[in-house]
Structures are given as structure tokens and as C-alpha cells.
Write a structure and sequence with these properties.
The chain has 16 helices and 21 strands. With about 450 residues, the protein is an alpha/beta fold. It folds into three domains: about 90 residues, Udp-n-acetylmuramoylalanyl-d-glutamate--2,6- Diaminopimelate Ligase, Chain: A, domain 1; about 210 residues, Mur-like, catalytic domain (UDP-N-acetylmuramoyl-L-alanine:D-glutamate ligase), CATH 3.40.1190.10; about 130 residues, Mur ligase, C-terminal domain (Protein-Tyrosine Phosphatase, Chain A).
Length: about 450
């Protein structure tokens, strides 16, 4: 993590300090008084209902060695180690960019509608076989989280992997210009954020902003099965590598085999190479194509790539396999959901053959805009006789339940507005060797259903 004197911090953000505070040492940065560790720099941010400046004194009492303070804010604490800035958020972002420029590290930026976090984890596992890696933790992928991720990177980091999230235009551009990636990945273009961006075309334009901070000799690694990306990269005068299912891509799987808890696949690139992926789903094989491409760009051998993928540990609630009290297998994919990822999860369960009973527990997909009811109904129509029961939760998922009844009948499809009632019904249906998939947008908190099992 960053460790600098206050004089150095002030120079990095064009801030002002009192001469008596020049030698104060800062170690690490936080915006949250609950997470302060000794010698942190506290960054007071202003929100709609709160002002971080109200908590600066508390930050010092809890061990912070210094804090930003905006010029416009009255009554700065006397005698405190303060860096006076115009805007704390912009200063945080400027500090991250300046710190990154001082590191001897390669940066990989990752965006996309689905699969960002999984691809980040795969990329980290592959690069970690050869390099010292630091990656985005949790959901620290926005205009605040990404700078904090950069500033938490050890000075000897060789590969920095930054997930870049968004909800509106301009956000990826900002993150890319802070991170200045050597390699940028766009996993896909889905339907998430239709509410804000209006169309898949608008989403594609927003994701393409990742090239705006790309280093002059950097490379864009993109999903070559997506026409919206193909149309947008054709005239770009940068290095490009495509991945996907189609044989026209630079990286594609020749053969895919699904096991009970893993996937095997081969690619042909400088010879044939076989890989074992300890996570389910063809879509995850495709995510791994992007990670493999990054690995090769960074000089990782195919043997090292195979080792990295075989030792993959995914962030929680992404196709996470666990078991219930009755011995039922649970696939916990409750972190997020969109029509693209929901379809992939449904198809995965339909294809699995080792379960005595298959149960889908599906919740609302959020932020889909005016067509949200139609999207849910279409997801329901994808559920066919391979599935034994559907338990839908949430207002929008009533449409999914109606769509599923066309193939399964009303006696095998249930809709709930109460989570405890859903859990009770699910416990009645589960049995040893049953398979339960749990998936919804994060706001539905369906991991509580997994915990109940």
C-alpha cells in the first residue's frame, strides 16, 4: 500500500499542508472511519445525506495520521495533519493515478456486462503463477473503489488487475484514465444498466470507454462473438485480440466437457492445450479465454496457465458450489443477475445429469428498464422439462413464473413475495442428490436462502 510523507502526498494531489506536518507518514488510505488502521490517510467524502468532514476528528482518534480537508469546509481541526484540497474525491483519484505512475507494474483493466469478477479472478490466478499480483477486492470497482484498490497495492506489485464497473456514460472513461491499462478486457455486452443507458448499443458505447485510458502500446481483448463490439473495434488503430466460441476468434475452445463440478476444454494455439476449470458453465470457459489471452500477452506459459486455472478460487456467490443439510448440491450464483447470465445458469442446470431433482430458485433481475417484465417472462419460457421445479421470488419474477408455467405447468412453478415461505417450500422439495440453483440480482439477497438450506 502507499506509504509516503505528508509532503509527498500534498505534492501528488496539488494540496497544501502546514510546514510542521511535512514529515508525518501516511500508510494506506480509507474513506471509512470503521476501517481505519494505524497511520491511514482519511479521505472525507460528501454524499447526499452525509459529509465525511464531520468524521475527521473521529478518524484521528481511531488512528489516522492525516486527512484531506476541502478548502470550502469551515472549522478545520486545529493542530491536525491536514492536506487542504479543492475536492476530496478528485484528490483521491489524483493520488491513485500519481501512485500508480510511481509503480513498476502492468495494469489489466476488465469491464463488461457479465463475468467481470470471474474473469478478474481467473486472470489473477493465471498471472499469479509467475508474478506478484494485486486485484480488485469485492465490489471496489467504481470511482471510489478503484482508486482505493490502486492505493492498497503493495509497492512491489508486478500485475495490477482492476475491475471497472459502471452505471452510466463516462464512468468507465474516468476509471480507465486513472488505471491506464496495458491490457483492457471487455467480457460481453448484456442487458444490465438498460434502465440508465437505454439500449444495448448504449451499453456497448459505455464499455468501449475502457480504451480511452489504454496505453499507446496496449492491447484490447474483446468478445469477438458480439456484433456490437466488432462494429466498434474495426476502425480502432490499436492492437486487438478476440475471444469467444466462434472459430473466427483468436482464442476459442475446440472441445468442452462438463463434469459434476468442473469443466475441461482444449484450445489450439501454438499447439493443442488442455485445461481443467474448477467451476461450472460454458460461459466460464469463455471467460477463461480472455484470461488466457492476457496470460500469453504477459509471458505466462501454457503450463503455467493450466496450473493457474486449475487452482482458481472465485469470489463468493459466483457459481459457488456448496451442500445443504439433506445432502443437496447448491449452486450459489446469487451475487448478480441479468438476462444473459440468467440464461447461462438455466442452460447449465438443464444440461446437468447427476441430480435426482433439479430446482431453480430465481429472483428479480434489476435495472432492466421499461422492458423488465418482458425480459423476466422470456427467462421463464427458457425453462423446459429438464427442470423439475421453479421457485420465483420478487415482484418482477411473477412474470418469470408465468413464462415457466407454459412448459412445466402450474403445479411445478411457485411464486413468492415472502422469502421465509419460499424457504419452507424449498425444504419440502429438496432431497439427497437434488440440485438447487439460486440466482438473482444482488438487491434480492437470495444468499439468505442458501444459508437457510
Amino acid at each position: 500500500m502507499i506509504k509516503r510523507t505528508l509532503a509527498e502526498i500534498a505534492a501528488m494531489v496539488d494540496g497544501q499542508i502546514h510546514d510542521s506536518m511535512k514529515e508525518v507518514v501516511v500508510a494506506g488510505v480509507t474513506t471509512d472511519t470503521r476501517k481505519i488502521t494505524n497511520a491511514n490517510l482519511f479521505v472525507p467524502l460528501q454524499g447526499e445525506k452525509s459529509n465525511g468532514h464531520d468524521h475527521v476528528q473521529q478518524a484521528f482518534e481511531q488512528g489516522a495520521s492525516a486527512s484531506f480537508w476541502e478548502h470550502s469546509q469551515p472549522n478545520p481541526p486545529k493542530g491536525a495533519a491536514l492536506v487542504f484540497v479543492d475536492d476530496s474525491l478528485k484528490a483521491l483519484q489524483q493520488l491513485a493515478k500519481a501512485y500508480l505512475n510511481e509503480l513498476d507494474t502492468k495494469v489489466i483493466g476488465i469491464t463488461g456486462s457479465n463475468g467481470k469478477t470471474t474473469t478478474k479472478d481467473m486472470t489473477a490466478s493465471i498471472l499469479g503463477t509467475k508474478y506478484r499480483v494485486h486485484k480488485t477486492s469485492g465490489n471496489f470497482n467504481n470511482h471510489i473503489g478503484l482508486p482505493l484498490t490502486v492505493l492498497s497495492a503493495p509497492e512491489d506489485t508486478e500485475m495490477l488487475i482492476l475491475e471497472m464497473g459502471m452505471s452510466s456514460r463516462g464512468e468507465i472513461s474516468l476509471l480507465s484514465k486513472i488505471g491506464q491499462p496495458d491490457a483492457a478486457i471487455i467480457t460481453n455486452i448484456g442487458e444490465s444498466h438498460l434502465l440508465d443507458l437505454g439500449s444495448r448499443e448504449g451499453i456497448a458505447d459505455a464499455k468501449m470507454e475502457i480504451v480511452e485510458g489504454l496505453k499507446p502500446d496496449g492491447v484490447l481483448i474483446y468478445n469477438g462473438d458480439e456484433p456490437l463490439l466488432i462494429n466498434r473495434v474495426t476502425d480502432l488503430e490499436i492492437r486487438k485480440i478476440s475471444f469467444g466460441r466462434s472459430l473466427t476468434n483468436d482464442y476459442y475452445p475446440l472441445k468442452i466437457e462438463s463434469g459434476q463440478d468442473d469443466m475441461k476444454f482444449t484450445i489450439e494455439k501454438e499447439g493443442q492445450h488442455e485445461f481443467l476449470l474448477p467451476v461450472l458453465g460454458t460461459h466460464n470457459v469463455l471467460n477463461s479465454m480472455a484470461a488466457i489471452a492476457v496470460g500469453r500477452e504477459m509471458g505466462v506459459s501454457f503450463d503455467e496457465i493450466a496450473k493457474g486455472l486449475s487452482e482458481l478460487k472465485l469470489t463468493n456467490m459466483r457459481m459457488e458450489v456448496t451442500f445443504g443439510a439433506k445432502g443437496e448440491k447448491i449452486i450459489n450464483d446469487a451475487y448478480n443477475a441479468s438476462p444473459t447470465s440468467m440464461k447461462a445458469a438455466i442452460e447449465l442446470v438443464k444440461a446437468m445429469t447427476d441430480a435426482t431433482k433439479k430446482i431453480l430458485v430465481l429472483g428479480d433481475m434489476l435495472e432492466l428498464g421499461p422492458e423488465e417484465a418482458a425480459y423476466h417472462y422470456k427467462m421463464g419460457e427458457l425453462i423446459t422439462e429438464e427442470i423439475d421445479y421453479v421457485l420465483a421470488y420478487g415482484e418482477l419474477s411473477a412474470n418469470l413464473a408465468e413464462g415457466a408455467k407454459g412448459n412445466l405447468g402450474a403445479e411445478r412453478v411457485f411464486h413468492f413475495d415472502d422469502k421465509q415461505a419460499l424457504v419452507q417450500k424449498l425444504k419440502e422439495l429438496t432431497e439427497p442428490h437434488a440440485l438447487v440453483l439460486v440466482k438473482a440480482s444482488r438487491g434480492m439477497r437470495l444468499e439468505e436462502v442458501v444459508g437457510a438450506l
